[in-house]
Amino acid sequence: MRTRVRRERAPRFPFPIPNGWFIVARADEIEPGRTRTLFYFGKDLVLFRGDDGTPYLFDAYCPHLGANLGVGGRVVDGSLRCPFHGWRFDGASGACVEVPYDDNPFIPKTATARSYPVVERNHMIWAWHHLERAEPTYEVPEVAEFHDAEWLPIVVKDFEVATCCQEMAENNVDTPHFKYVHGTPAIPEEEFHTDGPYKRTVGMDGNFVREGFGLGLGVLRVKGYTTFVSSTTPIDEENVHVRWIFTAPRSLGEGAAEKASISFTAGVSQDLPIWENKIFKDPPVLRPSEKAVTEQRRWCQQFYSWPEGDPRRR
């Protein structure tokens, strides 16, 4: 049973859904020619694969008269046909390419379903979300261990949390909490390096390396023990869907990836009651030794867009 005592209804976070690459499905959750309805980024979405297996993601509602394209929509090659009037939308661009009952060849540009950039990588389907619809500014890394015969098949753990991407990421630089929440004997010492949307953390005398790619995508390696990818996908501004994908060296035994996944998820279970019942303090009251929190928050700002008129716009 998860403890949730917070009853205040005011928004908790002073920023919108971030821009970045986020997992929207496991690759094995959708077959060629099929559709799947989703809800991420505060929007109803429809994921589908073309007949050749290429994945595509749209906002769910048809620009014609608003039918949900994921409820009865049909895949035609690399496009999606609306169940209401048969309008057909190209998967890559979202543009309407057919109005089957009309002889007028002109189709306005407004007859376009919003299409998200999508890549299939690391056994997952990733979508690029940007509030101003800008193109991707970094790439989803290819994790070599996931395709190496010397490493075990992946183990996926997923869970929903009442928090946001930035709060979960801030946990990594809040080193004192490891002692008081997780019971570590001492506060860990780690080195941090940032370069635009990329962030690298090194600890345990170089045996622990965490790479961040934007806000919500990380690759963590513990030498000789495990490699795992984390994706924190915004459901809306106050809830996220977390997926952790683990592998481990075969030399450790067939159950090594599962053991690593249990160990890490047991640790995060201790964070859940904190995340789900706290608020975001802006500005926080910090000690001089906690400057990494301020640096982390400054780094996170690059992943937000504030639409015109949003009172949180800076």
TrEMBL record:
Main localization category: membrane
Catalytic activity: cholesterol + NADH + O2 + H(+) = 7-dehydrocholesterol + NAD(+) + 2 H2O; cholesterol + NADPH + O2 + H(+) = 7-dehydrocholesterol + NADP(+) + 2 H2O
Pfam families for the chain: KshA_C (PF19298), Rieske (PF00355)
GO BP terms, alphabetized: cholesterol metabolic process; lipid catabolic process
Keyword Metal-binding: yes
Compartments reported by the entry: Membrane
Pathway field: Hormone biosynthesis; Steroid hormone biosynthesis; dafachronic acid biosynthesis
Molecular function GO labels: 2 iron, 2 sulfur cluster binding; cholesterol 7-desaturase [NAD(P)H] activity; metal ion binding; monooxygenase activity
Residue ranges of domain Rieske in the record: 22-127
UniProt-listed InterPro entries: Cholesterol_7-desaturase, KshA-like_C, Rieske_2Fe-2S, Rieske_2Fe-2S_sf
Superkingdom of origin: Bacteria
Residue runs in coiled coils: none
Keywords recorded for this protein, A-Z: 2Fe-2S, Iron, Iron-sulfur, Lipid degradation, Lipid metabolism, Membrane, Metal-binding, Oxidoreductase, Steroid metabolism, Transmembrane, Transmembrane helix
GO CC, alphabetical: cytoplasm; membrane
EC number: 1.14.19.21
Cofactor(s) listed: Fe cation
Binding partners and assembly: Homotrimer. The two-component system 3-ketosteroid-9-alpha-monooxygenase is composed of an oxygenase component KshA and a reductase component KshB.
Entry's family note: Belongs to the cholesterol 7-desaturase family.
Official protein name in the record: cholesterol 7-desaturase
Species for this entry: Pseudofrankia asymbiotica
